[in-house]
Amino acid sequence: MTERVALYLQDSHDLRDGLDYAKYAEEKGFEAVWQAESRLVRDAIVPMAAYAAVTNKIKVGSGVINNWTRNIGLLAATFLTLDDLAPNRIICGLGAWWDPLARNVGIDRKRPLTAMKETVQIMRRLLNMERVSFDGEFIHVKDIELDVVHGRREPRNVPIMIGATGDMMMEMTGEIADGAVLNYCVEPSYNDKAMELLEKGLMKSGRKMEDLDRPQLIVCSVDEDHDKAIDYSKMLLCQYMAQQPHIAKASGVSDEVVHEIQSILGWPATKEQINKAKHFVPDELVLKITASGTPAEARAKVAEYTKRGCTCPILYPVGGNFRLLIDTFAQK
User: Using CB atoms within 10 A of its CB, is residue 245 exposed (0-12), middle (13-18) or buried (19+)?
Assistant: First the structure.
């Protein structure tokens, strides 16, 4: 059993139910709850504030928000506000977003490495309560600082982590970030190369692997009925394969499977389309890239990721029984 474990929440449940899951995870010794922000469905900040307000100890992270749609001043002020609500419990997870969604809303993700590096550097300085001027390629600010009149003016302890997918972004994460939010829908051996890339970046900054936190999103479908758990994961995976090609690529899914699923699913996908497309997801793929099955099977699979560099599994519940998943990985 891993000593650290976190919960990942997205949009497959009523938002108010998410508050109960966060409280229950805290009771069961979970370290953190992370809120997704991916499709045009549910932003991360509102749920994060709600989780922070109804809990006392559990950390609350964004898993992950993009660095394109909030200007740097607003981004820093948002996480300052969250830290006011839950001091020393907030984690800022950033990602470079993905096409076609970014392109479809008018974002040109050119030079994503430079854009991310500028975001992390200026975000960190602002949360350190510095007065900042910067004229970069993407960020242009002049004499700005977080305007705290009422409240704490000391530097804020908000770790900045990058959800890296590409090799160059992974290496840069090791160089500039406080942590790497490792991918989901990948097999455990994916982590071997990720560790090598992070090590390269860490060497540039004079740090060691133990200086970098490495939580990892892991799709986790737990049911006492093995076949039901597999089926739940198929429903999720078919959407990712069709709508997020960077995830499909990282998962090693064949183009043939992706094209079959894309021919069925619209966007947004309907339940009918999902139930039709899920049959194209092979059982062996589910077992390869997710922790799906009975509680014992799920625990064994998660352990494979921690053995290969994951410091804290962030478990993404699939199916209806979130409490069973939390009980399966309870720390107390």
Answer: middle
